[in-house]
Amino acid sequence: MRSIPLDTLPGDRIYKILCSLVVPRPIALVSTLGPGGVVNAAPFSFFNVFSEAPPLVVLGLQHKPDHAPKDTTRHIGAAGSFVVNMVDEALADAMNTCAIDFPPDVSEVEAAGLTTAASVTIPAPRIAEAPAALECVREVSLAFGPQRELLVGRVLHVHVREDVMDEKFNVDMAAYRPVGRLFGNLYSRQHEVFGLDRVDHATWLARQERGEG
């Protein structure tokens, strides 16, 4: 077993270690509304759902090397809202295009050949091609050094394709086909899934007594 003290390593090595091991990660293609109505979109894999009561998501925002905030961070700071667009296989190439460092006055959505749809509760639009989208408002931001910021957002409204989720909120993974982030230029598909029943303690004890393991 390799033992690695992180306090002896530079940031790029720590980033590589953590991103290579904590996989796969969900991808948030975040759309925001900038000055003059320019719609920005940027992918984040330092992302996850955090809570259902209240409904919260978390984003790890990275600043530029000169410590200036990137477009997404500036827009959320000014408007207080954003949309998390989930990424499926069909959206993967466009998501990768949105990661290009375009100038602030260029819309990544347009550059990637995507279209927008109006949100219900916030000004920032969602990406119409996304299988699901979460309308969010900023709850709190915490700065951890000059280049990293943790953003907690409250989810106000959810859009999801009807073939992905039915009226009982069951998700069809074959229709959803989400993409996971690995490391470097690597991503993963979720074609093979399996189930594990979660049991209570009494059921577990009964199985042990029966020698079922």
Can you tell me about this structure?
The protein is built from six helices and twelve strands. Helix content is about 20%, strand content about 30%. The chain has a seven-stranded antiparallel sheet. The protein has a three-stranded antiparallel sheet with strand order 1-11-12, with no helix packed on it. A two-stranded antiparallel sheet has the order 7-8. The longest helix is centred in the first third of the chain and has 11 residues, at about 10-20. It has about 210 residues and is of the alpha+beta class. It has helices at about 10-20, 70-80, 90-100, 110, 175, 200-210; strands spanning about 25, 30-35, 40-45, 45-50, 55-60, 80-85, 115, 125, 130-145, 150-160, 180, 185-190.
How many helix segments?
6
What sort of overall outline do the alpha carbons produce when their principal axes are compared?
globular
Radius of gyration: 20 Å
What's the main sheet like? 7 strands, antiparallel
Structural class of the helices, strands and pairings?
alpha+beta
Instruction: Note the gap between the termini.
Output: 28 Å
Strand elements, count: 12
Strand-residue fraction?
25-35%
Helix content: 10-25%
Mean pLDDT, to the nearest integer, reads 95
Trace the largest sheet across and list its strands: 3-2-6-9-10-5-4
The unreliable regions are: none
